[in-house]
Specification:
Elements: E1 7-9, E2 17-19, E3 25-27, E4 34-36, E5 46-47, H1 57-61, H2 70-84, H3 87-102, E6 109-110, H4 112-128, H5 141-147, E7 152-161, H6 166-174, H7 177-183, E8 190-197, E9 210-219, H8 221-226
Parallel strand pairs: 6-8
Antiparallel strand pairs: 1-4, 2-3, 5-7, 7-9, 8-9
Helix pairs in contact: 2-4, 3-6
């Protein structure tokens, strides 16, 4: 299922404790009203001046912006990256790059900060059984990517739900003109990917259990050089040792904190 919402997201009612997977319990609380934004097609790609970043006003109102320093955010992303790179994530990266190669484009590499940003949003939509680019905390794509310590010149985001496998999900995106356009933007060289499974979607959400988030980006290397962070730092060195497996090990409980 691919859904893009516009307009205001209504406040959901407060629900009782609900099991969201494993032994984790999550209380679905009343959420603030947020103005949803649509991120589909090259015309919706977010361009950025790293010295003029501003959080979405609604996101700041709920007290979410500037959660930690840039250095701390980068350190967290680097520390968690290996655990976030699951067989499902690697398979989706392979399929996304296969699509790009067929269009004569360069491949993308997994980036730790983008991967963490994708994971945070994916857990959010999986936990609440939603399919929207606006977070339940009113965060937008740019807020989540900035909070992960990443600076960019262009970013875009694809969401999908309903299918467990990367192949079926990629089929959803390639059959959608706008989602395919985003995956084939020439400038994009880095990606963040996340998959989550919620066996018990809460009432009021959409009746699906599998959720995917793909963030595509063109980095701003000048900002990283200025801040003393250069190169790949070996982030992708271990990926060759990991191979996608046909198992459920890549699933992550949406009740886990991210």
């Amino acid at each position: 299922m691919l859904v893009a919402l516009t307009g205001a997201i209504p406040k959901p009612r407060v629900l009782p404790w609900a099991t969201t997977g494993g032994n984790f319990l999550v209380r679905v609380k009343s959420k603030p009203e947020c103005n949803a934004q649509k991120y589909h097609g090259p015309g919706a790609v977010i361009t950025y001046d790293p010295d003029k970043f501003e959080y979405t006003p609604e996101y700041l109102k709920v007290g979410r912006g500037n959660r930690q320093s840039r250095a701390a955010a980068i350190a967290e992303a680097e520390q968690r990256f290996a655990d976030l790179v699951t067989p499902k994530v690697l398979e989706m990266l392979r399929l996304a790059n296969e699509v790009r190669r067929k269009h004569g484009l360069s491949e993308m590499r997994l980036e730790p900060r983008l991967t963490l940003a994708a994971k945070r949003h994916n857990i959010d939509i999986a936990r609440h059984a939603l399919m929207q680019h606006t977070g339940t905390d009113c965060s937008q794509l740019k807020d989540r990517v900035w909070d992960a310590g990443y600076t960019w010149t262009k970013i875009a985001e694809n969401l999908a739900g309903g299918n467990e496998t990367a192949a079926a999900t990629m089929g959803q995106w390639t059959s959608s003109k706008r989602h395919l356009e985003q995956m084939t933007i020439p400038a994009m060289t880095e990606a963040g990917i996340a998959y989550d499974y919620n066996p018990h979607p809460p009432r009021g959400g959409i009746p699906i259990k599998h959720f995917w988030t793909l963030i595509l980006a063109r980095p701003d290397p000048w900002r990283d050089r200025r801040d003393g962070r250069t190169g790949d730092s070996g982030f992708n060195d271990h990926l060759k040792e990991k191979a996608p497996k046909k198992s459920r090990k890549g699933q992550t409980s949406v009740g886990k904190k991210s």
